[in-house]
Structure formats: structure tokens, C-alpha cells
Design a protein that fits this description.
The complex is a heterodimer of chains A (116) and B (109). Chain A is 0% helix and 51% strand. Chain A has strands at 4-7, 10-13, 19-25, 32-38, 45-51, 57-58, 67-73, 76-81, 90-97, 106-107, 111-115. In chain A, the strands form 2 sheets. In chain A, strands 2, 4, 5, 6, 9, 10 and 11 form a 7-stranded mixed β-sheet that branches. In chain A, strands 1-3-8-7 form a 4-stranded antiparallel β-sheet, with no helix packed on it. The mean pLDDT of chain A is 91. In chain B, strands 2, 4, 5, 9, 10 and 11 form a 6-stranded mixed β-sheet that branches. Chain B has a 5-stranded antiparallel β-sheet with strand order 1-3-8-7-6, with no helix packed on it. The radius of gyration of chain B is 13 Å and the shape is globular.
Chain lengths: 116, 109
């Protein structure tokens, strides 16, 4: 089946620093990638949608200058949390679409970000 | 607006059957998904329904009625490992997934 990897799985950083999270589709070309964040006991919240080679489309209320998304190739998208603050601590999950079953989103394992 | 409703929490007994309901109101419909999510992990795909009726896959079945804006996920022969959150999501006319808040299923021995 289609596999999506995410790196790192856990990261702790200090307030004011930036953190980059990578999302890779390992065995298929991802025409579209999605970035979600999830707070404890809450559902997924879509942050942005990115298509390879074009700018990401951000959801209302998501600061594009704070959450930088780059979808440089059909297998890689990155999310950079700039000038992180404790309230950015969350579970960040990417997903990718573009496998054999194009309607399906394949999720990465998620990244637990803790900002101290 | 777009809305997905599912119960917040359900409890069932090991070996029993449980049905998790989902109702939706969305702008357009391109299919309904069920995902399973264990605590601290990413969601995993369970099922996809785009036509009315029942789709069976092992111990799990998913039903859809588009006219009623209704779906359910049926889990049979419950096992302790089925304790998880079950997320209902609908793909709207823009091919965006609209997510429900999830149903936390607790399995008791």
C-alpha cells in the first residue's frame, strides 16, 4: 500500500526557534499533500493544502508566515513552524493523495511538537 | 455550513457488536470515509463509501444513505485492540475532506 513517512516523530524546541517537519510519500507520487494539526482529544484541523510546484492554500485563521509550507517535489512537502511559541505545541500530521486510489488520503505517522 | 455529527464516546463489551453513526450536511458529496485513530497515532483508513449500501470488510462494515446524509460503521466481534477513536469524514464538492470530531470507543472485557 501507499506509505507516507514523517520526520521527526517528536521534537522539543525552545520558544522563538523554528522547526521543520518533513513529509514524504515513499512509493507513490503525491499530487496533493495536506497538513493537519490535532489538539488532545480533538479532531483533525486542516491547516493547508499544497500541490506540487505551487503555493499552498491555507485555511482561514492559519498564518501563512508562521507555518511555511513547501511542496518542492511529488514526494516531499515540508512544514516549518517559525518563531515557535508554547501554544504551537501540538500533534502535526501530514497526508498525501495521488496513489492508485486517488480519492484516499494516506497519513504520515505524525510529529509531536513541544515548545518550551 | 458544513457539519459532521457523530457521538463523542461509546462503550461496548469485548466480543459484542457496536454501531457508530455519522450524519452529515456538506456542500456536495464525493464519498464518505471512516478512519481509525489510536491515541498518539495518525489515522488509518478503514472504509470508503460513495454509493448507497453496505460495504463489508472483515469484522468492519460501513453503510451509506446519501438521501438521508447518514452513515454508520459496524464493528463485530469486538477486540480490546479496537479501542480507539473512529473518525467520519466526507469529501465535499471541492474534494476537501470535512472531518467529524471522532467517536472514542471504549471496549470493556
Amino acid at each position: 500500500g501507499a506509505v507516507v513517512s514523517q520526520h521527526p516523530s517528536r521534537v522539543i524546541c525552545k520558544s522563538g526557534t523554528s522547526v521543520k517537519i518533513e513529509c514524504r510519500s515513499l512509493d507513490f507520487q503525491a499530487t496533493t499533500m495536506f497538513w493537519y494539526r490535532q489538539f488532545p482529544k480533538k479532531s483533525l484541523m486542516l491547516m493547508a493544502t499544497s500541490n506540487e510546484g505551487s503555493k499552498a492554500t491555507y485555511e482561514q485563521g492559519v498564518e501563512k508566515d508562521k507555518f511555511l509550507i513547501n511542496h518542492a517535489s511529488l514526494t516531499l512537502s515540508t512544514l516549518t513552524v517559525t518563531s515557535a511559541h508554547p501554544e504551537d505545541s501540538s500533534f502535526y500530521i501530514c497526508s498525501a493523495r495521488g496513489g492508485l486510489r486517488d480519492y484516499e488520503q494516506y497519513f504520515g505517522p505524525g510529529t509531536r511538537l513541544t515548545v518550551t | 455550513g458544513q457539519n459532521i455529527d457523530q457521538p463523542t464516546e461509546m462503550t461496548a463489551t469485548e466480543g459484542a457488536i457496536v454501531q457508530i453513526n455519522c450524519t452529515y450536511q456538506t456542500s456536495g458529496f464525493n464519498g464518505l470515509f471512516w478512519y481509525q485513530q489510536h491515541a498518539g497515532e495518525a489515522p488509518t483508513f478503514l472504509s470508503y463509501n460513495v454509493l448507497d449500501g453496505l460495504e463489508e470488510k472483515g469484522r468492519f462494515s460501513s453503510f451509506l444513505s446519501r438521501s438521508k446524509g447518514y452513515s454508520y460503521l459496524l464493528l463485530k466481534e469486538l477486540q480490546m485492540k479496537d479501542s480507539a477513536s473512529y473518525l467520519c469524514a466526507v469529501m465535499d464538492s471541492n474534494y476537501q475532506l470535512i472531518w467529524g470530531a471522532g467517536t472514542k470507543l471504549i471496549i470493556k472485557p
